[in-house]
Design a protein that fits this description.
The protein is built from ten helices and two strands. The protein is mainly alpha-helical and 221 residues long. It has two domains: 121 residues, no CATH class; 86 residues, no CATH class. Strands 1-2 form a two-stranded antiparallel ribbon. A hairpin with a 2-residue loop joins strand 1 and strand 2. The longest helix is centred in the middle third of the chain and has 23 residues. The structure holds zinc ion. Zinc ion binds next to helix 5. Zinc ion (ZN) binds next to helix 5.
């Protein structure tokens, strides 16, 4: 149900990835669907979450990992778009489909895992090398992201609209989300120092696309 990364605006993909990462894997424990595969009924097992920390279970589609760094729809559709659900191919020794998906040190999966580390620690990535992020900047980004997410969470919970009629900074009332972010800033100087006009141009985390995506994953909780 998530918006695929390749459908997100290029400039906002990293922010959206960080939000998904902070939100954590979707590892809901529930009564999983039983499917008849050959002679036997099989289903997803919750112990696979411990074995494969990256694994997610989609109640609509089943396991959908390796989602964050796919930039084309056609790459590895089993694990990104369609969902993997051949349960009898899990934990069958060397041929275990989940281990095969993980693959060797330079596999697409392991490259994605590495990219998560780079994205969250802000070093090593090619555009981060050109603009080396200090740990202070990383902390600022996280605080700003958290502020946006918590504001959206509260507004969604209260059934309030996020957006106003006019969100330009010259307008007195910029809508619930912007006003909430401003209010948080008034109460906490650390937040005030990182949000809205204090934020770097592409990392304000307040565009309509980002709001929509954050809403979708907060509403699943
Ligand atoms: Zn993967």
């Amino acid at each position: 149900m998530r918006t695929p990364i390749w459908q997100c605006p290029v400039n906002e993909r990293d922010a959206i990835r960080r939000a998904y990462i902070l939100r954590g894997q979707y590892q809901h424990v529930m009564e999983y669907t039983r499917t008849k595969l050959g002679e036997q009924y099989r289903r997803f097992k919750k112990c696979w979450f411990e074995q494969f920390s990256w694994l997610e279970y989609s109640p609509n589609k089943d396991a959908v990992p390796c989602f964050l760094f796919q930039v084309k729809k056609t790459h590895y559709p089993t694990f990104t778009v369609n969902g993997f659900r051949s349960w009898k191919r899990v934990n069958v020794g060397k041929r275990c489909a989940l281990w095969m998906h993980v693959g060797g040190p330079t596999s697409p999966h392991n490259n994605a895992v590495q990219s998560v580390g780079v994205l969250m620690n802000g070093s090593g990535h090619i555009d981060k090398v050109m603009h080396a992020q200090t740990s202070e900047e990383v902390n600022k980004n996280r605080l700003r992201l958290k502020d946006t997410i918590e504001s959206i969470r509260w507004l969604c919970l209260q059934g309030c609209a996020l957006r106003g009629h006019d969100e330009s900074s010259s307008f007195d009332n910029q809508g619930n989300l912007m006003e909430m972010i401003k209010l948080m800033g008034k109460m906490n100087v650390n937040i005030n120092n990182v949000v809205l006009e204090k934020a770097p141009r592409n990392e304000k985390y307040t565009s309509p696309d980002i709001q929509k995506i954050f809403c979708i994953f907060l509403l699943r909780e």
